[in-house]
Amino acid sequence: MYPGAWIGKKANENGILILGESHYGETETTRGVIEFYLSENHKGSRDEWMRFFDRISKSFGYYEMSEEFWDKVFYGNYIEMPCGVGDNKADEAISENRRDYNNSLFSFVNENDINCIVCFSQKVYYAMPDLVGDEFCEEDIEIGKSSGGRRNIARICYYLATDEKRKHCEVSLEKPLTVYQVKHPSRGFDIGQAKEFFYKNKELMSICK
Fold first, then answer.
1. Which regions of the chain are under pLDDT 70?
2. d(Cα 100, Cα 95) in Å, to the nearest integer?
3. Organism's domain of life (predicted)?
């Protein structure tokens, strides 16, 4: 994951990682981005990157810039380099570094005793380690429709603690892990549909308002 993941004050109580795709623009740490987002240093400006975090917290029942929400979770970005908006750097980075990114992700999960991941990127979800043995995914969960009538799909993937070798990852999980995936919270993201989906899953109730 990108260096310096955010660890909320109560994140260890809940064991939930919010997983994004990548940083846009140069920044030293993910933690620094969240700290700036929650601070008054931006003097009330609401750039689009801030709305990304607003939509995440609102989909769990909180207001924008909610310290209460961000104190409850871990947050990290899967890709370990900055990417630009609208370019193909993310695809190239995943293609070239998928194994390393997954090793980093599963190592972080083990080190921080994480129970589940909420992934806000279909691209990242499909880059995660392959399933083995009795692991499985629910791939086609319709949680609503867009204003244009397109289906809004969520996914849930269930990993087990196993030493069985995986493609694209060399790190074994030390405990079961559930991964929830919804679409990227950019423009067109339906907060209400995501919220309804999250509230139906007991594992996430500790961070729902």
1. 23-27, 41-46, 82-87, 187
2. 11
3. Bacteria
Residue 176 structural domain: 6-207
Stated pTM of the model: 0.92
Alpha carbon 81 to chain centroid, angstroms: 16
Q: Establish if 25 belongs to a structural domain.
A: yes
- pLDDT of the residue at 197: 96
pLDDT, position 148: 77
Distance separating alpha carbons of residues 59 and 194, to the nearest angstrom: 6
Residue 32 lies in a domain: yes
Residues in Cβ contact with 105 at an 8 Å cutoff, skipping those fewer than 6 apart: 1, 19, 76, 78, 128
- Return the structure tokens found at 126: 């499909």
Give the CATH number for residue 52.
Answer: 3.40.470
pLDDT value of residue 46: 62
Q: What are phi and psi of 56, to 5 degrees?
A: -65, -50
Number of domain units in the chain: 1
